[in-house]
Amino acid sequence: MKNENRVLPVTTDPDTAPFWAAAREERLVIKYCEECDRPIHLPRAYCPVCRRRSDVWRDASGSGRVYSWTIVEHQVHPGYPTPYTSVLVELADHRSVRLLGSLPGRVPLVGGEPVQVWFEHLENVTIPQWRLVEAGGA
Amino acid sequence: MTDTWKPDTTAIVGIGATDFSRESGRSALTLAAEATLAALADAGLEPSHVDGIVRCDMDEVPPVALGDAIGVANLEYWGDVGPGGSAPCAMIIQAMAAITAGLATTVVAFRSINGRSGQRYGAGYARDVRVGGRSAFEDYFLPFGMQTPGQYFATVAQRHMIEYGTDEQTLGRIALACRRHANANPAAQMHGRTMTMDDYELSRMLTTPLRLFDFCLETDGACAVVVTSIERARDLRQTPALIHSAAQAGGHDAQPGQMFPALLREDITTWSSTDVATILYRRGGVRPADVDVAQIYDCFTITTLIQIEDYGFCAKGEAKDFIGDGTLQVGGALPINTSGGHLSEGYVHGMNHVVESVRQVRGTSTNQVADAELSLVTSAPTTGGSALLLVAG
Ligand SMILES: [Zn+2]
């Protein structure tokens, strides 16, 4: 897919670069505090609980659940044609960790509905996205 | 935690506003000067009396530039209090802090914005740029199409509906109350433009579940107020609006950035407003039931709904039971946004709410609440909040 008009992430920021580097390898990673064994999400240098400085990233399962969403009808950006459904996903293995995703069209969602990560490869960056887990499917 | 808060030691003594429009034809600096000169005239003061200026850090106009523009020769104090919507009450708090610390005697707080003809917040943040870094974590949101305040607040509203069964009609009643009040306020952009629940429900869906009439009015305009000590206030032209209580709070689990990262808080339908409310009521020695009239930050209807719960006017999740027809209108249990608010008067980033709150304790609102003694004004999300309780001096 071409990058034209899409909003793309900076992948060289010291706090977030490992997330985007892992995405290029089709891995979803979350930062952890080694001491507390809890996620530091969004990823920052210090654990807000124990103040330990951490550089530990762990693979997430890639399974999630729909926490909330909005169906965008009013287009504000040329790279994001409407309608699309912006979904807020909580990770199945770490419910305190949430990530965004974008689904084309008006998707009739239900709170708690299972979703699975997939990786959208653009020219120079890979974006972790989410799709509904079909009934009876994986 | 205890503090040494002393109620009613400072006051708002002057209020000023420009017209609210879609195209002011003036610079933000001109608007700021116009509102400030109006506030000083209202108080019976001259620019030479001003020695402090406070603004929010999203304003285009630096304090020193405003001082220079209106001929303030002895500016000895200025401050920035953080981003837009959470700032207006905090600006008054900073003015008050400067005064009580002896750093200034007469402080102007202002907000000036060409929010319609200039940069529109509703237009989104990025065009063909890379986002992220700068400790704002925009890279976790904007690439996925989560790009505007409307989309953010819609996602919060959807979650409130999932958790509590909140319905769109409750949001509609908030919009209707604001519109009704704007209809009686000649300065409001929606003066004379009535709205029914049918109009609300038929309005264009912009980002589910929020419709056109759930959104505030992008506006050009400015508001300013003058703060001074109670001793000086007694000698001035107007009945002072005493600052009975004041509070700021960031809440726990705040997350970084200005807006989108708040979607990752443990609970996205309870805000730092709850922390603000706790401090505010404790310092004021009052309860929610004591509030006679409230100006509640309303960039969107859902913003107000959540704060009605956070400030304790009903329990969390029960807004749909509390807000009936007329509840929020003058004569109802909790009259809110009596100038029309952001939804129907204009969006001056919460500063018009401070101005209207002062009018209520003076008894000069175009939608005056009878016997209004305790007036709440809130400045809200998403990074943190602030609020004031005003009483007539
Ligand atoms: Zn830790």
From TrEMBL, chain A:
Stretch forming the signal peptide: none
Domain ChsH2 rubredoxin-like zinc ribbon residue range list: 20-54
Pfam families hit by this protein: OB_ChsH2_C, zf-ChsH2
Residue ranges annotated for the ChsH2 C-terminal OB-fold domain, each copy included: 57-119
InterPro entries linked: ChsH2_C, ChsH2_Znr, NA-bd_OB-fold, Thioester_dehydratase-like
UniProt superkingdom: Bacteria
UniProt xrefs under Gene3D superfamilies: 6.10.30.10
Name of the molecule in the record: DUF35 domain-containing protein
Species of origin: Gordonia humi
Lineage: Bacteria, Bacillati, Actinomycetota, Actinomycetes, Mycobacteriales
TrEMBL record, chain B:
GO molecular function: acyltransferase activity, transferring groups other than amino-acyl groups
Domain Thiolase C-terminal: 265-389
Keywords from the UniProt entry: Transferase
Domain of life (superkingdom): Bacteria
Transmembrane segments: none
Name of a matching Pfam family: Thiolase_C_1
Keyword Ribonucleoprotein: no
Annotated SUPFAM superfamilies: Thiolase-like
ATP-binding among keywords: no
Protein name: Acetyl-CoA acetyltransferase
Organism encoding this protein: Gordonia humi
